[in-house]
Amino acid sequence: METNKSIFIATTQPFSGKSIIALGLVDMLLAKSHNIGYFKPIVNHAPDVKRDAHIETLIKHFKLPIQYNNTYAFTKEAANQLVENGLQGEIIDTIISKYKSLEEKYDFTVIEGSDFLGEGTAFEFDGNVMIAKNLGTPVMIVLSGEGKTPSQIATAANVTINSFKSRKVKVIAVVINKVETSQLDEVRAVVSTQVKKDIICTVIPTIKELKSPSMKEIKDHLGADVLFGGDYLANPVDHFIFGAMQISNFLNHIRANVLIVTPGDRADIIMASLQANQSKNYPKIAGIVLTGGFEIADSVIKLIKGADIRVPILRVEEPSFYAATKVASIHSRITPESIEKIHIATDTFRKYIDVDRLEKELVKFNSSGITPRMFQYQLVSWARNKKKHIVLPEGIDERILKAADRLVRQGIVNVTLLGNLNDITGTINRLGLQLTQDNCQIIDPHDSIFFEDYAQTLFELRKGKNMPLEVARDLMTDVSYFGTMMVHKGHADGMVSGAMHTTAHTIRPALQFIKTKPGISLVSSIFFMCLPDRVTVFGDCAININPTAEELAEIAISSADTATKFGIEPRVAMLSYSSGASGTGEDVEKVRTATELVRQNRKDIKVEGPIQYDAAVDPLTGKQKMPDSEVAGQASVLIFPDLNTGNNTYKAVQRETGAIAIGPMLQGLNKPVNDLSRGCTVDDIFNTVVITAIQAQE
């Protein structure tokens, strides 16, 4: 029997929430193979008119190895023309031909049915059934439960399933999307009794964050001009209000992520809105749309320019009612820039879909090695399975808060933030995050009930270094010392810091009282380099400036053990400027000695050195230069001879290949403490917390 290599996502109406399923499927499949294709037989527009939002988002976000022009066969207009001329057979033949060329190139292809938008929708459902049948692909049906009763939803599901099954098309799953939370249990009960047990049934509630358009979508839909706050167009809009009443009444209607629509001559509403957005007593505002084409008075513009504007202010010519009506008609799309929505969509898929069962039904192919997506997927799964408590000392940093918000919402770790309570809660409120004292611990070291105990512990630990108690107390007001002491005392399982502090500031307390594991003499670091087709370990690119041969050997052994722990088979390359016995000189000899020490101390580790980078990673070059080596050409752990070489190489590889560098992860400490770079992104922080949590599971 031929192995299935595709899945068809089908719906019966527009705006059913197919994007959740498309994003979730691709995310799931990329955990098995990096070679995933995407195909939408019929798109709404030609690329030069308007590109398909789903296809664009999937290709760009997941870096799928496919060109846009290869992802579709026809535009809707061209397909309708052929239908009108009685040439349906030509449509199917072309679609089959295009799909078969993709099937040969990719391990698995996700196929997306049409959108049911605009003219010519009458033929679309039958067309989707016909395409799925001719491509021989199983179907995943997506239906919207919006505005329907449970019995109407169950009927729609059965009718759609039977329409496919009557044409002998296999339906493996049906997803009921956008169901009111109050109806979830009833819909699940009704659907499960009416749909056959061999079909996976999933009911997903309405996800407000996915339904809400961004201010950029509002701007584009209204054709509005941006007057101020262009950097905040990603703000989500959950609802809107008219600003046409007295200020005292107007303020009572402000809710989180609200869009304020008001005439451009209402300076009082404008200023009250901006002031409310800065106030700790009001939630974050999404933006302001000024209507009627009014020019804002110079005095008001002067006032706005002198203030800290953190909301977009848009301007349209139309009156308020017209603008508000257009806003209400927007259906939000997930675009490549909607990073947060993409994360929410994939998290929703994992939360509600029986992924294990779906994989058994669907994924029959095997891939070799570990792909970057597979690696990241596994990291999050490992961290979530044995939930740990991570302290983040830099609680006032916006990037830290955004990462913490994502970690908490996904249920990956428990989080403690350190810093001034009012400052942190004010920033959380301004950013519109979901962090609260109920789901995240916020501690000001000065006010902690453990402050004196921590200071006394530090004093006892450092008495041999002549540290006075007052100095210990003073150090304990430092968030890095306080956070490290939380880990030392077992009040947290690990710490991640460095977004606002130097590496030395982050690591110094750990070296002073967490110290190294038995048998390990130095702390070293590795990066997980997620290259397009594989994950490799780079060490040491962050800590040790010029290690000795003995230290280099210890770094290699620690890095090999880390690789094993994280599911990467270690094949260690000890890098130098020459390969094998060809080179001479002090630097080469250091690497040669270190290689021999690894072989002597750990006979189980596959190691080669000295070896050049190209011979280590390129199979052809490795075979030419070192034909008898079991590491050359397929190294998975690369050990650099010094910090200068390692740090520059990892950054060069990251920039030139678009690789994701996760780390640095510190090795050798008794308990996990990890450092961030001060230029780190929210994703960097997220990934570093995840690997810290996994380290803490030892």
TrEMBL record:
Keyword flag Phosphoprotein: no
Protein name: Phosphate acetyltransferase
Signal peptide region: none
Quaternary structure and interacting proteins, as annotated: Homohexamer.
InterPro entries the UniProt entry points to: DRTGG, P-Actrans_bac, P-loop_NTPase, P_AcTrfase, P_AcTrfase_dom1, P_AcTrfase_dom2, Phos_Acetyltrans/Butyryltrans, PTA_PTB
Domain remarks: The N-terminal region seems to be important for proper quaternary structure. The C-terminal region contains the substrate-binding site.
GO terms for MF: phosphate acetyltransferase activity
Family from the record: In the N-terminal section; belongs to the CobB/CobQ family.
Cited CDD domains: DTBS
Keywords: Acyltransferase, Cytoplasm, Transferase
Boundaries of every Phosphate acetyl/butaryl transferase domain copy: 374-693
Keyword field contains Metal-binding: no
Main subcellular location: cytoplasm
Catalytic activity: acetyl-CoA + phosphate = acetyl phosphate + CoA
Gene name of the encoded protein: pta
Subcellular location: Cytoplasm
